[in-house]
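Q: How would the structure tokens look for this protein?
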Amino acid sequence: MAKFINPFTDIGFKRIFGQEVSKPLLLHFLNSLLAGEKEIVDITFLDKEQPAMYADDRSLIYDIYCKTTDGEHIIVEMQNKEQPFFKKRSIYYVSEAISRQGERGAEWKYDIKSVYLVAFLNFKIDDIGTKFRTDAVLMDMQTKEVFSNDFRMIYLQLPYFDRQADECENDFERWIYVLKNMEALKRMPFAAKDSVFAKIAEIADISALSKEERMKYDEGIRKYRDTICVMDYAIEKGLKEGFDKGLKEGLKEGMEKGIAEGEKKGRYDIARNLLAMGLPIDSIMQATGLSRDEITSLM
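A: Here is the predicted structure in token form.
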């Protein structure tokens, strides 16, 4: 039985989507993603042209930058942990890819090509929604019609995809199933019926890695897991500290409230005794600090 690479590591992600030999796989995935809209014939990798735009931990975020024969730009990104300002960062990322198309001189007529961001999210993010796939374009607020699809962002929240292999209805869903479960698979599903998935099995098989590639992959896995553990520990520690602080403040507040209520009950008891002795209300008010209404309510 085969053992497959983890696609959520830099080496795994780039091996499946980011090398010339795997270009047919990327084309097949993108065409299944955009089925019914368009067909991409060929792509050119532009990784070397994409400048570093953020200082994130590279064991958690990887991206591939490419261009179609029609000049459209496509950014395929894998993210393993939620980050602050994620949605704003992704908007900025796409905007930069659009602005870099500008040319100097009066002859340029703003001939920008569409930019697609396809973001695999290995986590849930609140401000995108609670569904697996979210497509965002520029839209007319009144008519709800697309104003422009030159700016297109597709978010794929993998935790919301819960279909089993026999429940996948199209190539896109089969792709997502394979990517989400790849490291745990003993054999590649769909390979017998579709040559694309047979090719994935070939490329993603760990035994196919060279000695140098295997060393890099093992190091990538270690960094990936260490980083996930560190972040999970930080979250757990933050939650515990928050709980301890809240418990301490709650106990303090409860004690203060209990003392205050005890003192008030004691004053009520004194007021009742003084009322029973026939003392005037004004005198009881002075002795207990209670209001006239509070004392009369005890009569």
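The first strand starts at residue 43 and ends at 45.

The radius of gyration is 31 Å.

Upvote if useful.
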